[in-house]
Structures are given as C-alpha cells and as structure tokens.
UniProtKB/TrEMBL annotation:
<dbReference type="GO" id="GO:0008168">
    <property type="term" value="F:methyltransferase activity"/>
</dbReference>
<dbReference type="InterPro" id="IPR029063">
    <property type="entry name" value="SAM-dependent_MTases_sf"/>
</dbReference>
<keyword id="KW-0489">Methyltransferase</keyword>
<keyword id="KW-0808">Transferase</keyword>
<dbReference type="GO" id="GO:0032259">
    <property type="term" value="P:methylation"/>
</dbReference>
<protein>
    <submittedName>
        <fullName>Putative methyltransferase</fullName>
        <ecNumber>2.1.1.-</ecNumber>
    </submittedName>
</protein>
Length: 187
C-alpha cells in the first residue's frame, strides 16, 4: 500500500499558522480530505462559516475547480486578518464578519461549518444558504451507531435534526474513529 498523498501546500501553510498560534480547533486531515473531494464536485461559490486559521478553506480551495469562488467568514478580527494576509494570493476570500453576512454572497454550492457553530446558529438561516443541489457539510460529531444518535449519553438533537430533515438527503460519515461528518444535500 502506498503512503497517503502529500498535504496540499495551502493546507501546510494553514496548519503552520494553527501550530504557531496554538489554535486547536482546526479541521483534521481526515475531514479535510473529504472536504477537498466534495469541493471537487462543486461549481459556483463555496462558503465556510468560521475560518479559524484557514485549514478548512485551504482544503476546499485545494479540491475545488479553479473557476469556483471560496469565501470564508471569521468573527475574530485578528484571526480573520492574519488568514486574509496568508491567503492574499490564493483566490480565497476571507471576510471579517459574522457568518450570517455570508448570506449576501449566496446561494452556495457547498457550505461548511462545525457542529459547535451549527448548534448556535439558527438552523433555518443555514438551510437558506443553499438551493436545490446545494450541500451542507457539518463536522466535529462524535460517531454513534444508534438511532436516535447519542452523545455523552444524551440524544444528539443537532445530528438527529439534520439527518431527519426531509428537505435533505443526508449521510453521517465516520471519517476517523472519533469523529464524523454530516453531508446533507438539498433536494
Ligand atoms: C471550529 S473553529 C473553525 C475551524 C475551521 N473551520 C477549520 O476548518 O479549521 C470555529 C471558528 O468559528 C469562529 N466563529 C465563532 N462564531 C462565529 C460567527 N458567528 N461568525 C463567524 N465565525 C465565528 C471562531 O472564532 C472559530 O475560529
């Protein structure tokens, strides 16, 4: 078996920034490879809510066709401006804004956000970011084989609601032993 492919240069840069800043919330590599693969199927505009140090955006840009736009919103001003500088030549639009402002740039072919943020954001506002065929990708779930899904002994209502929403065809993908990602495509 051959070694997994090298990390894209953009991703390495973003991971270095995470390391340098002690930022521990960055997307993991298993999720990143899935993001790049999904982004490769997209056209139009791809959005990320919560840039962090740019790891997710770097994966999305690395996988997406050249003529797609990648836009990412970060609330923390210092973080947003550091990532803006880092990606200034890389065709990634970083905005210092609440994710809700992303709506002005939609609809999106793919929206990526973490479960923690999705739990705080009004769900219908997230749904409104995509039209038919648009994909919402939520990461940072704890894998669970039961239904309803459980997390720390309680029903994982966020995951349950996304998977049960009949406006979407959805799947919960276990990308590593300890983490899963929901992919929901609007019908
Ligand atoms: C889990 S991290 C994101 C990691 C990033 N997506 C990645 O792939 O590495 C969540 C980020 O969302 C940012 N954030 C929190 N609330 C936000 C909001 N309302 N709008 C935009 N960003 C927000 C936080 O500052 C934090 O950097």
């Amino acid at each position: 078996m051959s070694a997994p492919p090298e990390l894209p240069e953009l991703v390495i840069r973003a991971l270095r920034m995470s390391l340098h800043r002690g930022y521990v919330q960055a997307s993991r590599t298993e999720t990143g490879r899935l993001l790049a693969t999904l982004a490769a199927t997209r056209s139009g505009t791809i959005a990320e809510a919560g840039t962090g140090c740019g790891v997710g955006a770097a994966w999305l840009r690395s996988g997406a066709p050249k003529d797609t736009r990648v836009i990412t919103a970060e609330l923390d001003p210092e973080l947003a401006h550091c990532v803006m500088d880092m990606f200034s030549d890389d065709d990634i639009d970083v905005i210092h804004a609440d994710w809700a402002e992303l709506g002005q740039h939609g609809p999106f072919s793919l929206v990526f956000l973490d479960a923690g943020s999705a739990a705080k954001f009004p769900r219908e506002q997230i749904v409104d970011l995509v039209d038919t065929g648009g994909m919402i990708v939520l990461d940072d779930f704890t894998p669970c084989a039961s239904w309803p899904p459980l997390s720390a002994g309680r029903v994982d209502v966020l995951r349950q609601d996304w998977l049960a929403d009949e406006r979407f065809t959805s799947v919960d993908v276990m990308v590593a032993e300890d983490t899963s990602v929901i992919i929901a495509v609007r019908r």
